[in-house]
Amino acid sequence: MSRRLAAALLAFRALSAAAQSAPSADAPLELSLREAVLLALEHNPSLKAQRLGPEIRRTAVQEELGLLDPQLAAGAAHTWPAAPPAESGAEAELTLSLPTGTSLSASLGTGWDPVSSSYDVQVTQSLLDGGRLPANLAGVRQARLDVQASQHELRGFTASLVAGVQQAYWEHYLALRQREIYRESLALAERQLEESRIRVQVGQIAPSELAAPRAEVVSRQEALREGEKRVETSRLVLLLRLHLPETGLDTTVRLADSPGAPAGPLDELSRHLALASSRRPELLQARLELERGELEVTRTRSGLLPRLDAFIALGGTGYAAAFGDTFAAAAQDSSLNAGLSLELALGNRGAKARAERARLGRAQAEESLRALERTVEVDVRSAWLEAGFAAGRVSSSAELRVLQEQTLAAETEKFRGGSSTTFLVAQAQRGLLASQLSEAQAAVGYLLAVVNLYRLEGSLLERSGIEEEL
C-alpha cells in the first residue's frame, strides 16, 4: 500500500471511528462515496491477498541475485589407515561468480603428520556460452519484470474493486430514489382515487370511472413492493462490497452523496486512448511479458554457443616441521597454470529446442499484444461513446419529466372541468412515473458510464483520489 493511500485510510479512521466501532444493527451507517471506497480498500480480503503478490515476486529477485553470492566451503578429516601413519587435514574454499561470466576461487589447506600447507587461486573467464553479461543477468531482469507485472495486476484488481464499490453505491442510491418515486406516485394515485370517489358521490362522473384510479393504486402498490425489494438487494450488495467485519447485514445505509449534473463535455477521444495506452494494466502487463520473452531469447541464444573458458591458476604446497614454516615453503614452491577448456555438445538439440521455444514465445507475445491493443481501443471507444450518450440522456430525461408534469397538470385540470376521464389522468400519471424513473436512471447511468470509461482507460484510481505508487 502506498504512503498516500495509507495516510488517507488513517485520516478516514479518525473521522469515522463510530462507523467502524461495531455499530449495532439499529445504528445506520452513513457513507459518502469516498468513504465507501476507502472502507472497501481497507477491509477487502481479496485485496489484502493481492497486495502480497509484489512482495512474493520480489523474493524471486533476491533468489536470482543469490546465485552471485560468494560460497564458502570448509571441512576437516582424519584417516585411520591399516598401517600407520595416520593422516589429518582441513581445507577451506571460497568461490565467487560474477555476472560477467568470471569465476574466482581460492582455497587453503593444512595437514598434520606430515605438517603441510597448500593454497590455490584460480580465475576462470567464460568466452562464449556463459560469458555474456545480458544473458547472465536475464534471470534477474526477468524476476524484476515479474515484480512490475504483479504491481500492474494489483493496480488492475484495485481499479476493478473501486469500480465495483462505486457501482454498488450508485445502484443503491438509484433503488432508494426509485422507492421514493414509487411512494410519491402511490400518494398521487390515492389522491386521484379519493377525488374520483367524491365526484361519483356528487354525481359528476359515473361509478365505472373508479376502475382506472383503483387499478392505478394497485399498480403503484405493487411497484412500491418491487422497489422495496430492490432497495434491500442493493443494500446487501453494497455491504458485501465493503466487507466490514463489525457491521451486520441488517445495518441500514445512508448515502451522503447524490448524482450531480454532468460536469461538462468529455475529453477528446484521442486523450482517452492515449491514457489507455500508457495506463491500462493489461497492456502494461502484456508489454512486460514481451520484454520478458526477449530476455528469454537472449538467455537461450547464449546456450547455442560452445563452452570456452580461459583460466589461470596459481598454487603451491609446502612441508615443514612447524605450521608457520609451511606457508613460506608453499610460497617458494608455487606454480602458475593457464589455458583454455572447451566443451561442445554434439547436436545440441536441447539448447536449440529451448532457443526455438523462446523465439516462438516472443512471437506469440507480440501477436497477443497487438490483439490486446486493438481490444483496448475498442473498449475505450465504446465506453467513450456510451458516456457521451449517457450525458445526453440526463438532459433529455429531465426535459421529458418536466413535460410529463405539465401534461398531468393539464389532464387533471381537464378532468376537474369535466372534459377528461380518469383513464386519461391515470395514463398521464403513468407517463410522469416513467419519466421520473428514467431521469433517475439517466443520472446514475451517466456516472456508471464514466466510471467504466475511467476503468477501461486505467485512470480510475487517480481520478478517484487514490494515488497508489506501486
Coarse morphology: elongated
**Helix content, binned percent:** 55-70%
Strand order of the largest sheet: 2-3-4-5-7-8
Q: Let me know the number of strands.
A: 8
N-to-C series of helices and strands = HHEHHEEEEHHHEHHEHEHHH
Structural class: alpha+beta
**Count of the domains:** 2
CATH architecture descriptor of the largest domain:
Up-down Bundle
Could you name the CATH homologous superfamily of the largest domain? Outer membrane efflux proteins (OEP)
Provide the low-confidence segments as ranges: 5-25
CATH class category name of the largest domain: Mainly Alpha
| Beginning-to-end CA distance, first to last residue | 7 Å
Radius of gyration from CA coordinates: 39 Å
Number of helices: 13
Protein architecture, described:
The longest helix is centred in the C-terminal third of the chain and has 68 residues, at 349-416. The protein has 2 domains: 3-67 and 151-305 and 350-463, Outer membrane efflux proteins (OEP) (Up-down Bundle), CATH 1.20.1600.10; 69-136 and 307-343. The protein is elongated. The protein is α+β, with helices and mostly antiparallel strands and 470 residues long. α4 (45-66) runs antiparallel to α6, α6 (138-201) packs antiparallel against α12 (422-457) and α11 packs antiparallel against α12 (422-457). The model is unreliable at 5-25 (pLDDT under 50). The chain has a 6-stranded antiparallel sheet. Strands 1-6 form a two-stranded parallel ribbon. It has helices at 3-15, 17-20, 33-43, 45-66, 133-136, 138-201, 211-242, 269-279, 281-302, 323-332, 349-416, 422-457, 460-463; strands at residues 29-31, 71-79, 87-97, 102-112, 116-126, 253-255, 307-319, 334-343. The chain contains 13 helices and 8 strands.
